[in-house]
Amino acid sequence: MSFSSILSPLGKLNRRNIMLFLALLGPGIITANVDNDAGGITTYSLAGAQFGMSLLWMMLPTTVALVVVQEMCARMGAVTGKGLSDLIRESFGVKITFYVMIALLLTNLGNTVSEFAGIAASMELFGVSKYISVPLGAVAVWLLIVKGSYRIVEKVFLVACVVYVAYPVAAVMSGPDWGEVLHASVVPDMHVTPSSVTMMIGVIGTTIAPWMQFYQQASVVEKGITKEDYAFSRLDVIVGCIMAIVVAFFIVVACAATIFKAGVKIDTAADAAMALTPLVGEYATGLFAVGLFNASIFAACVLPLSTAYYICEGMGWELGVDKDFREAPQFFWLFTLIIAVSAGVILWPEAPLIAIMYISQVVNGAVLPFVLIFMLRLINDKRLMGDYVNGPVFNVIAWGTVVIVLALTLVMTLDILHPGFIALLMGR
Predict the structure, then answer these.
(1) Each residue of 51-94: pLDDT tens digit?
(2) Enclosing domain of residue 339
C-alpha cells in the first residue's frame, strides 16, 4: 500500500463512484468528529484564549498524523474483517490484551464522565439544571444505541457531525484578522514556554486518542466494508480527519480573536461560550453552547460504544449495535453500565471531576504509544495484510508519527505526575 494510492479514487469521479462513496460514508467522519468532544473543545478553546493564534501552525502536521493513524486501522478492518482488539489478542496473546482493555476502560470511563459534564455545562447556559439535562441525556443516549439499528445510529451520528458548523460560524462572527490567521497557520511561533509546550501536547493528545483506533476499525467491520471497495472508504477517513481539524481550527480562531485579545481568563468551554457574549454577542454564545452540547452528547454515545466494542472483541464476546440484549448481553450491559456510572458521577455534588480527568489523561498517555506500535506491527505483517501492508513512504510517516506521539505523551504524563517537569526540561 503506497502513500500515493490514498487519493486514487479522485481520478475516477463518476456517478457510480460518487454513489459508492456516499454508501460507504460514515466510520471515518464519525470517528474523527467525535474526537471534538467536551474535552477537545475545552482544550482548543483554552489554546486560543491563552495563546492567541500562535498555535494554529500545529493544525497541518496534526492533520497528517491523524490521517495516517486512522487510515491504517480502517485498512486493517477492511482487509482482515476483524477489529483491532481481535487482532491484538490473536497476535500478542490474551494477557497483553487484558491489560490494554483495563487501561482503555479506565480512560474511557473518565472521558465519558467529562462528556456528561459538557452536557450539564452547555444546558446550564440555557438555564436548564444538570439534574434534568444529564438524566435525560443519558436516557436518550441509551435508547438510541440499545433500540436503534446500525444504519439508524450512523445516520444520527452523521447529522450530529453537521452541527459542528456552529464553530466556523462563531469564528466568522468574531471578526478575526484573516491575514494574521493565514500567517499563524503556516509560520510556526518560535516563542516557546513551558505552558505553551504543555498546551501543544494537550492539543495533540486530544486529537489522537486510543479509543479512536478501536472504534474506527470496529465500525468498518460492522458496516461490512471489504478491501474491494476500501479505496472509497479511505476517502471517508480523510474527509473526516480534515473536518475534525477544521472545526478545531475555527474554535482556536474564535477564542483567539476575542477572548485572548480582551485578556479574559477562562477554564472551560462553557466559560468560553459565556465570555463571547460581551465581546461578540449572544448569538455567538448560543452557537458555542449548541456546539458544546452537540459534541458532548455525540461523544457520550460513541465513547461508551467504543469501549463495549473493544472489550467484547478482546474477550471474544458477541457485539454489535444490530444485535439485541439476548444476542450480545455483555456488549449492551457494558454500554449501559458506563452510561449509568458516568451520568451518576456528574449528579454527585462532591464528585472529584478534576482527579478523574487527570487520571484518564495519564492512562491515555501511557496506552496510546503501545496501541500505535501494535497497529504498526500488525499492518506490516505480510501474512495478515498481504499486498495491503504499508509502503516505505507511508511507514516513514507512520513511524515518525509514533515517535513524536510517544515522546509528547511521555512528557505530558510526566508533567501531570510531577508538575513542573516541562519547565525543568526546558531549563526554566
Answers:
(1) 989 889 988 888 888 888 888 888 998 899 888 888 998 888 88
(2) 3-425
